[in-house]
Here is the input.
Amino acid sequence: MHARANVPRVLGIFLLTIAAAVAPASAAEKAASQPAGKKSLGGSGEMIRFDLPAEGAKAAGVKIHGSRYGTPQAPDEKFVIYFLSPDQSEVLATELAPYSLFDRGPEKWVDVKFRKPVELTGKEVWIAVEFRAGRTKGVYVSYDGATDGKRSRTGLPGLEAKPVDFAGDWMIELIPAQ
Here is the structure.
């Protein structure tokens, strides 16, 4: 009987331990991971700069917070992900991914995984995403409101990048290769 009396106490301690292990991020981290808005860029693309952890880093993919708009059925086409040099003058790599990765409806994180990792050189890289958006198809990409927006631009290779018109950064992340 004595062991049974301890079960609720032990279970309570166990649940508190689990709750502490999965506690929410700090207020700043939580605000940075919450969208402040979303945009679709026809004739341009979402650009974001990443500092790389080491020379010779590899990207297994990217995560994009967004949702598709347009026809109920996703277009049978692909969007483009460009990896650009730090000065944006050179395309280092290009990847294609299907529109069907994105659902219509609420924005959410979407993993775009590459067939083989993209090798990156240097200490930083720009990523530009081109959805070829229009009135009847595109992807709304979310942006946060807790960062300074210094890492984000609008533009595509061969076009002059322009500052974003919001105080935040595109919610696009690199997925490092293991």
User: Anything to note?
Assistant: The first helix runs from residue 2 to 21. The chain has one domain: 28-176.
